[in-house]
Amino acid sequence: MSRKRSEQNTSFHTLKRHTKMDMIWNVSICVTALVVVLISKWLYRWSNPKCNGKLPPGTMGFPIIGETLDFFKSYGFNETSPFILKRMSKYGPIFRTNVFGSNTVVVTDPDVMVEVFRQENTAFVFSLPGAFTKVLQRDDAIVNHGKTHKHFKQITLNFFGPDGLKKKLLGNMDRGTYEGLKSKASSGSFDVKEAAGTLIIRHLIPKLISDLTAEAAENLLNIFMAFNLDWYKSFFSLSSWKSLYRSLMASRGAMKMITKALESRKESGEKHDDILNTIMEDVVLDDKYVIFQTYAIPIAAKDTTSVVMSMAVKYIKNNPKVFLELKREHDAILQNRVDKNSGVTWEEYKNNMTFTSMVINEALRLVNLAPVMFRKTLIDVEIKGYTIPKGWMVFVATSLRHYDPAVYENPFEFNPWRWEGQNLVNFSKSFMVFGGGMRLCPGAEFARLQIALFLHHLVTNYDFSMAQDDEATRTPLVSFPSGMHMNISPIK
Ligand code: HEM
């Protein structure tokens, strides 16, 4: 009897265990099925984002990282982005993707590019991908719009536009460039990009904060020189992470110094003729904005102008005909100068450097510095039968235009003469190296002048050659993995 009961008990427990196992099994299957359904839905949503219309064709890549790795693949200096070219040939001039974790539409059609610039602040706004804003010290000021943007633009143009340069900067820039080149040349060889960066920051610091002690100015210069964009080249290399760390520390250091200068001015009530004062005074703005904008100017100026200057020198040296014509132009300026001790005048720069301006335009075109311009849609935007949903990033691929054989014959050839007789403006549908519309670079004339001054003092005072092994690559920004070195000696 008791054996029977025990058997019954055992089978009852076995049944109970089985039922429990079945339940766990069933629940696991249900949970797994639910997870699979949710993931599939998420994957489907990832590949087919919501849109109140027809999205441009394209693929969104892998979940989370999208097509970011493909976008960052390095390519040859004399190439157009394979990422863009491949997709253009597959999907046409407007396509969708996901880069930097943002749903993005890439625009390669020149008419659409101009339209994007035209609709700045109504349908599109300037916006940087998250990874960039982090290093540049994320702040709303970086994407200033409307009134604050207009105000900032006016200030930068007052200082760095033709009038400001002529009245307030040219003399110092000319002397500084002559002296800087002389000091670098004394060592017989130097990195042009690094030397150019130092020159630019040296000219800018007194314009930003004019009352720094010599020691503080030198400190700020070193901080700005430590900032670079090398970090974004690769997620996987240790040197990129080190560079990112250095850039973050540099950003922090620069902000601290600007904050200190701002606080001291507020306390003392002193007025100065510099950018910090002008941004502080004109409009009631919060301190964060003032500090960020003061900091942003050297960041925007340094690694742009110094790269174009380095490549301009390299192109000139590799093209003897260009070098001779350039030297002829600058020797003539010296010969015709009435006051032999005066530096380069505004009239000389504007009236007697026509070939130099053609050389600079050609270098700007070939360096093709900004592969894309970043914008974000403020509303759903209808373009060429497609809808770009509100909040999406838009990459305006202006760089394609500069290598388009339909616009520039033999586009990879360095040929300053192609600019002969042309109006050398900073913006046209074929020439968007300084952007366009309301965001057109306010430092364009400063950059041109700085390169012209460097070339003037170089070709009139020195014999020079470029290190043959130094190459440029694109990742997709231009970089010089081993620097860009010049061997130099005074003309005998
Ligand atoms: C060869 C040198 C340079 C190139 C190729 C260049 C290129 C550009 C481009 C393409 C933009 C527009 C970005 C966009 O629309 O998204 C821009 C904006 C800007 N650049 Fe430059 N730049 C150069 C030099 C400079 C210099 C020397 C300065 C300062 C002195 C400067 C200050 C700025 C500022 C403040 C902006 C933002 C303008 C705005 O938001 O309205 N840049 N630059």
Automatic annotation (TrEMBL):
GO biological processes: brassinosteroid biosynthetic process; brassinosteroid homeostasis; sterol metabolic process
The organism's place on the tree of life at top rank: Eukaryota
Positions of heme binding: 441
Gene Ontology MF terms: heme binding; iron ion binding; monooxygenase activity; oxidoreductase activity, acting on paired donors, with incorporation or reduction of molecular oxygen
Membrane topology according to the record: Single-pass membrane protein
Keyword vocabulary terms for this entry: Heme, Iron, Membrane, Metal-binding, Monooxygenase, Oxidoreductase, Transmembrane, Transmembrane helix
GO cellular component: membrane
UniProt cross-references to SUPFAM superfamilies, sorted A to Z: Cytochrome P450
Cofactor(s) recorded in Swiss-Prot or TrEMBL: heme
Subcellular location: Membrane
InterPro entries recorded: Cyt_P450 (IPR001128), Cyt_P450_CS (IPR017972), Cyt_P450_E_grp-I (IPR002401), Cyt_P450_sf (IPR036396)
Family recorded in the similarity comment: Belongs to the cytochrome P450 family.
Name this polypeptide is given: Cytochrome P450
